[in-house]
Write a structure and sequence with these properties.
16 helices; six-stranded mixed β-sheet; alpha+beta; 36% helix
Length: 599
């Protein structure tokens, strides 16, 4: 009985890992003391394991050499045929005697394959480092010799393939990044939410749920806005706070839609959205008093239009929303078009690049199909909103330039590493690529790429992607960091010169003024260190050196000092990454382009 009770106790701890005979022996040796018996079994088990380890790790010299040779032969067998595909201009790399192989185009598309091919040697090196370093060294040297040209050849081939692959992926449709801007409560989210619903992007069940929930919350007219305003706080307050992002397609375009906040408190978020856009939709409220409130001083209609123009957007669709509130009056539409047209021309938009469309977002008139309302048909026969979006010209994608991605968000996901989101401004990226993060100046590896939640092997300029990153600490990566090509990294500096255009401001800009620099997704405190000169608006010639202050509408060359390193590109080299905005005490004071990087 004592024996059985001891055995039961031991089985609770050891389960099936030890045979009954061993346990019985241990109990008898320890005179029926279960604890002593357990100690005895465990210590014996450990002893045997270490003995086995020692036997494994200290084989004879002969067996080590044999093993290493066998492994190296296996690695050679793995590598050789694959390396044959990575020959440079038809020449074989020395050190491997192999027949020439035909280059398969598809193998050059997957850099993941390259990383797999070159990864075995380090594993081998680690496993037999202690005993056969001398033997493994030449092998690892040979593989590094191969690795360098092979990467180069993949890149060289890839440049041709990326453009073709982009067209294939988009099924002939051009990519377009669209931002929706305008004064708070102009109806931006409702307009785009209804457009997405009419395009079938939101199913009826979800739409019905939004309608019921918005009614309960006493905001029945906000149902369509909830398609894009997803957070509880946005829905509760009835205003967009962050940039909502979604995708849809027209006949010839694949659109990434960004719904920017209109409230002046959230202009930094709006700048982030506008900096990633190619074209913009400016929504204005046709109601009497509402348009004027947004357009006069202090309204966001003017500021938003100026901001998108300063950030490089040249094509604009002005949506005159809530036209049903003024009974579709052509006079009101003309009045708004004239007022805005005059202002937009001053802001730098060409008349040919601006279109005006009357709509009503809540009722869905003139959004996806031309309106059949007699009051509108009588005087308007232009395009509907979807047709206008489809007629925008897509910009050229700088795929051949060095890789650049501005981080818009950083988050920890499941699995190892973490994820960053952002728009690829230039170049392309593949899984397995090594990139440099600036300003921390840290190298990292791209483990995975997702475009609109779909995993991909590669992504190119213009895509809004989520990259899974390993090899760098998440603490070092912030919003505003730039992922770039290791061979051609972006410059970082704390002091730079820029040509700026001063907006309408209350106080003149003087030396030493603290401002907030908005550059892509980055916002960084800066000081105006020097006012270098006042320039002529069109010719750029110096009108006055070392001015005391800068006033409304002036064009000037200034020097800015940041508190920590900022990644920048010169405007002449990289238009997308050479623009920035300056804000002071809650309002935009200037827009500028980087002309010289100091230090």
């Amino acid at each position: 009985a004592r024996l059985h009770s001891c055995l039961d106790k031991m089985r609770e701890v050891l389960r099936e890992s030890v045979s009954d005979q061993v346990m019985v022996d241990a109990v008898l040796n320890s005179q029926y003391d279960a604890h002593k018996a357990l100690d005895l079994v465990l210590s014996e088990d450990c002893h045997q394991k270490t003995k086995r380890k020692v036997q494994n790790t200290v084989p004879t010299r002969k067996s080590i050499v044999g093993k290493a040779k066998e492994q190296s032969a296996r690695v050679d067998a793995d590598i050789v045929p694959k390396v044959a595909k990575m020959t440079v201009s038809g020449k074989q790399i020395t050190g491997f005697n192999i027949p020439s192989a035909n280059v398969d185009e598809n193998d050059h598309l997957r850099k993941g394959a390259v990383s797999e091919e070159v990864s075995p040697p380090p594993v081998l090196e680690a496993s037999s480092k202690s005993n056969s370093t001398a033997h493994v060294a030449p092998l690892s040297e040979e593989t590094t010799v191969i690795q360098t040209p092979s990467k180069g050849s993949v890149k060289a081939r890839q440049q041709i393939d990326v453009k073709a692959e982009l067209e294939k992926r988009q099924a002939g449709k051009q990519l377009l990044n669209l931002v929706v801007i305008g004064h708070v409560d102009a109806g931006k989210s409702t307009l785009m939410g209804h457009l997405l619903y009419l395009l079938g992007k939101v199913n009826k069940r979800i739409m019905h749920k939004y309608e019921q929930e918005s009614k309960k919350a006493g905001k029945a007219s906000f149902a369509f806005a909830w398609v894009l305003d997803e957070t509880g706080e946005e829905r509760e307050r009835g205003v967009t706070m962050d940039v909502g992002m979604t995708t849809f397609e027209t006949k010839t375009k694949a659109i990434t839609l960004m719904d920017a906040p209109g409230h002046k408190d959230f202009i930094p978020n709006m700048i982030t959205g506008a900096a990633q856009a190619d074209v913009a939709i400016l929504v204005v409220d046709a109601s009497r008093g509402e348009f004027e409130a947004g357009f006069e001083a202090g309204g966001q209609t003017r500021e938003h239009a100026l901001l998108v123009r300063s950030l490089g957007v040249t094509q604009l669709a002005v949506v005159v929303n809530k036209m049903d509130q003024v009974n579709w009056q052509p006079e009101r539409f003309k009045e708004i078009s004239n007022k805005l047209g005059h202002f937009l021309k001053q802001a730098g938009f060409k008349d040919s690049d601006v279109a005006y469309i009357p709509t009503t977002g809540l009722n869905g008139e003139n959004l996806t199909t031309r309106s059949q309302i007699p009051e509108l048909k009588a005087w308007y026969n232009g395009p509907c909103l979807l047709e206008q979006i489809d007629s925008f010209k897509s910009p050229q994608r700088p795929v051949e330039k060095p890789f650049r991605l501005c981080v818009a968000d950083v988050f920890k996901d499941q699995g190892s590493g973490f994820s960053v989101t952002g728009k690829i401004e230039a170049g392309y990226v593949q899984t397995g690529d090594r990139l440099l993060v600036m300003p921390p100046n840290e190298a990292c590896t791209i483990k995975g790429i997702a475009l609109h939640d779909e995993p991909l092997d590669w992504a190119a300029a213009g895509d809004h992607v989520t990259l899974t990153v390993t090899g760098v600490d998440i603490i070092k990566i912030n919003v505003g960091c730039i992922f770039c090509d290791q061979k051609a990294p972006i410059k970082t500096c704390m002091r730079f010169r820029a040509r700026v255009l001063i907006f309408s401001i209350d106080i003149p800009i003087t030396q030493g003024l603290p401002v907030l620099l908005h550059y892509q997704t980055l916002s960084e405190p800066c000081t105006i260190r020097r006012l270098v000169s006042v320039l002529h608006k069109s010719t750029g010639e110096v009108l006055k050196k070392k001015p005391k202050c800068l006033t409304k509408g002036q064009n000037a060359l200034i020097e800015l000092q940041a508190q920590r390193p900022v990644p920048l590109e010169l405007y002449k080299d990289f238009k997308e990454l050479g623009r920035f905005m300056l804000r002071y005490s809650g309002s935009s004071v200037a827009a500028g382009v980087v002309t010289e990087i100091k230090e």
